[in-house]
Amino acid sequence: MKKVGYASSTRADYGIVKEYLLELNKDEALELGLLVTGAHLEEEYGSTAEEIRADGIRIDLEVPIGIDTSNRTGILNSMSVCLRSFGEHFGRNRYDLVIVLGDRYEMLTVAAAAAMNNIPILHLYGGEATYGNSDEFIRHSITKMSRYHFTSTAEHRKRVLQLGENPADVYCLGALGAERALRHLEGKKRQAEAGRGYMVILFHPETATNMDPNAAARELLEALDSFRGDYDLKFIGNNADVNSKFIRDRIKEYCSEYGCDYMVNLRMEDFHALLFNSECFVGNSSSGLIEAPSLGVFTVNVGDRQKGRTRGNSVIDVPCRKDDIADGIRKALAMKLQGTSISNPYYRAGCLDAHVKATAGLLRRLDRRPKEFFDIDFNVDEEARIEP
Predict the structure, then answer these.
(1) Burial category of 92 from C-beta neighbours within 10 Å (exposed 0-12, middle 13-18, buried 19 and up)
(2) What superfamily would CATH give domain 188-338?
């Protein structure tokens, strides 16, 4: 029996892969355990570990890291706690495979701890680009520590190959979030709430630029002022990133003053339902690029946090200035009214089944030997792989 660990630090990285994990948990040939840390264990972010427990997947480890987002030193202190705890755990418990998703600082420390203990890592969704955020270099660093890779698009697979990864270990399978959003609402009709339509807003700080979080929040909220008379505004709590509290506090004050809805945390299926029935999505979350298009929702993507990330025609990019944001919202509302068709570059039919099948294949051929750098001929473009 193979022992597999999935590391999770936020509602997002768990919600995206929940169905994938539930399928893996059914496999009698493997023993799945969750490695939980970060915002899951913080009351300020909704204590979402309770949500995981309700799904019935065994939790092998919980690591509270005392998140302090007021400055970069606080984040680094949390990373040091995470690294030490996961290093000790992996030293005592032998996993055949550790799965990590994405690009957060917590996942960087988990990957480092696993790699130093010579545990093979499967990295989900390397090769993406987000130039306005420290996630950019974290993601590529995790790629280099990982032996196996599932990418969301063929373009992202090419980037992973550029980093010297063996093509035999890099699979282009689509993004689970893009398919899961559609599966949640398959066959359902849009439901207008009694009264006015609403917009969904989710806004994070930019951690690789000189963005002033207070100024950015002010520009966003002043842009929304002009729509408050005609639409309800529903805000979702942001991630545990450096400076996120400054934005979160300003938004809470705004919601208190004007009676807007503020939701610290939503289950993924509830978030998708909320988004599905909205007029548009405003902010700078990756959900606006990956999941919203599957739901037929237009996104006003504010600022540079998602700069460089692949996007479809439903994403309207605007600078973080109130007039530009307001113009973007008007454009999104007009495109919805016109019935503009939407494409999603992250969606691939059968994505969940492909992830489960590819994972089973990897577990049959795990390799603990030192990984070698793979030099590629850029004149030869191998067909994107699905089968292991």
Answers:
(1) exposed
(2) Glycogen Phosphorylase B; (3.40.50.2000)
